[in-house]
Amino acid sequence: MDERKSELVAKVPLVTLLFWIIKILATTLGETGGDAVTMSWLGETTPKAKGTGYLIGTAIFGVIFVAAVLVQIKARKFHPFLYWLTIVATTTVGTTLADYCTRSLGIGYTGGSTILLICVIGSLLIWRWSTGSISIETVNTPKVEVFYWVTIMFSQTLGTALGDWVADTNEMGFGGAAAVFGGLLLLTALLYYFTSISRVILFWAAFILTRPLGAVVGDFLDKPHAQGGLALSRYTASLALLVVIIALILIFPQKPASKAH
Question: Is the predicted pLDDT of residue 45 greater than 60, yes or no?
Answer without folding.
Answer: no
